[in-house]
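To: structure subgroup
Subject: Chain for Friday's discussion

All,

I'm putting the inputs and outputs inline so they're searchable in the archive.
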Amino acid sequence: MEFRTPININTEFKLGYTDKYLMLGSCFTENIGQKLLAAKMNVVVNPTGILFNPESIAEAIDKAIEGMPVCENDVFEHNGLWSNLMFHGRFSSPNKQDALNRMNEGISLAHKQLTEASMLILTFGTAFVYRNKADGRVVANCHKLPASNFERQILNVQEIICKYSELFERLSVLNPKLQIVLTISPVRHLRDGAHANQLSKSTLLLASDQLVQHYGNVHYFPSYEIMMDDLRDYRFYANDMVHPSDMAVDYIWQLLRENCFDQPDLVLMDNIAKINSAIEHRPLNPNTDEFKQFIINQLNAVQQLAAQHTNIDFTHEISHWEKMAQNPGN
């Protein structure tokens, strides 16, 4: 008897260690992005901060294409912090120049990665947006400004399609080899209400599907469907009953691994995971001969991987075990 509805995943794209990735979108992007980073892949995750709606994600891509810097007139001071409505709060700072520097570093990083990337992974979180009444532009973050400054709206399917059709055409000129993967965040936006959340996710699903149908280099991965139909149990949510739990994220990541990576990359990924786990190991007595041999074995394993995969930087891991070999108790 089957008590689940496993999702049949038929991806037309492959991921691997030869790819360069740019990932933009909701906090679920951060979850999967951290998995790729831990696997030592060449990935840049949300260089302008977490983004929830398609309009703000498109704005970030526009900035990355142009590589245009943020100017002094683009930031404002509120509650002692200098911010920009298109950037996440982690870029805000009490120092104006520091805020500008952080934002421009993010844009430069995004521009460089986008021009070189083979994979652009976008995660849409919600179709609801907040539009600044002063200039009519959709904002990525309200930065605790008065609610009266903004008008809340929901994007429609055609608006998203038109925005991304134009954007994908620009990307094809900037980087013809770029493959694009769309996914819908499984995070529930319940502050909108259960019905409104479903309308929002449905809008994103319909827009994504039409974009995939129209563009040969645009693909879809069913993160939302895995959470809603395969897991569909509150035990797979965090305590807030909104975000997927660590177990759910791990499960979705496992399905992404199984369906999108070839076997040699999976073997390498597992070997790197073993190295990461070994670094976290803390012995009860580091001065035993057994642990000293463990250090030598780990150093040899990392050096062997580094020699086999010269495109991956193992400097940190080699340095760690070399220092441990000199002073096991430290």
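Points worth raising on Friday:
The mean pLDDT is 94.
The first helix runs from residue 27 to 38.

D.
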